Amino acid sequence: MAESNENNVPEAPKGGVKKGNKKTSEKLKLRAVPETILKRRKTANERNAKRLQKRKVSLAVKRLHRKVIFKRAEAYVREYRKKEKDELRLARLAKKIGSFYVPAEPKLAFVIRIRGINGVSPRVKKILQLFRLRQINNGIFLKINTATVNMLRIVEPYITWGYPNLKSVRELVYKRGFGKIARRRLALSNNKLIEKKLGNKNIICMEDLIHEIYTIGPHFKEATNFLWPFKLNNPAGGWRKKTNHYVEGGDFGNREIGRAHV
Predict the structure, then answer these.
(1) What is the C-alpha separation between 169 and 213, in angstroms, rounded?
(2) pLDDT, tens digit, for every residue of 165-199?
(3) What 3-state DSSP class applies to 42?
(4) Alpha-carbon span 196 to 174, nearest angstrom
(5) Which of 171, 117, 162, 116 is closest to 141 using CA atoms?
């Protein structure tokens, strides 16, 4: 039985496994790529490399720009705190020696228009146009000097105004601030908009704009003209009486009459 099983096992072919045919070997060979395709690939690779390099440079510039903005904001905060501490120190010193400390007269005002133009004289209408107060509840920042105070007195029955602090200026610019770019009213959602318009005045971000307005800087006029007149709402509960002065329980006029230029 063992011999018959051994005889039934097929013998291995001589010469080992047969190699593939010539056709299969030719198929496995690399096909030749046209020169135009190779040039196209090279151009695409160079374009991608340039794009990556440009992106790296832009990211580095943005990072550096962000550092500059943060440093400026920190410097402004230190300046505001120092000014506040100096005023507090002078007030305490005056009280200690039995005197009074009179703070400097305010140089910045915020003006809001509260009445329309029915029965308005041409002179008043012209001053309101100069102030860019063309609609009811429009507001602007204004530099206080002799000329502007005289103009405010002329249009006083149609406006209300006061002296904003740093918090008010910052909230107005951040929440209600719109820029005038190419005669269009655009929200200040990006510092690039400010830098594009006021970069030559060394104003490149929101904090620069706020600092220039609050401190009445050398480019105050350009900064305020860049801002579109603020469009505000009526106060909660409405106006009390627009035809009466604020001192008489109404609305128009200076709301801080004790510090007004009279």
Answers:
(1) 8
(2) 999 999 999 999 999 988 899 999 888 899 999 98
(3) helix
(4) 18
(5) 162
Cα distances (Å, whole numbers) of residue 108 to 92, 111, 192, 224, 248: 25, 10, 26, 12, 24
Cβ contacts of 70-79, under 8 Å, gap ≥ 24:
72/205, 72/207, 72/208, 73/205, 73/207, 76/207, 76/210, 76/211, 79/211
* Cα(252)–Cα(262) distance, integer angstroms: 16
Tracing tokens 């050398």 back to the chain, one arrives at 218
Sign of CA dihedral 149, 155, 157, 162: negative
Listed as ranges, residues in the chain with pLDDT below 50 are 1-6, 9, 12, 17, 258-262
What the block records as the tokens of 144 is 């206080």
How far apart, in Å, are the Cα atoms of 199 and each of 149, 185, 222? 31, 19, 11
Q: Which residues of 202-236 are buried (b: 16+ CB within 10 A; e: fewer)?
A: ebbbbbbbbbbbbbebebbeebbebbbbbeeeeee
> What angle, rounded to 10 degrees, do the helices at 191-198 and 206-214 form?
60
Please name which of 153, 173, 256 lies closest in space to residue 214, comparing C-alpha atoms.
173
Q: Name the pTM for this structure.
A: 0.75
Instruction: Indicate the residue type of 157.
Output: P
Interior CA angle at 185 toward 179 and 186, to 5°?
Answer: 65
pLDDT number for residue 259:
44
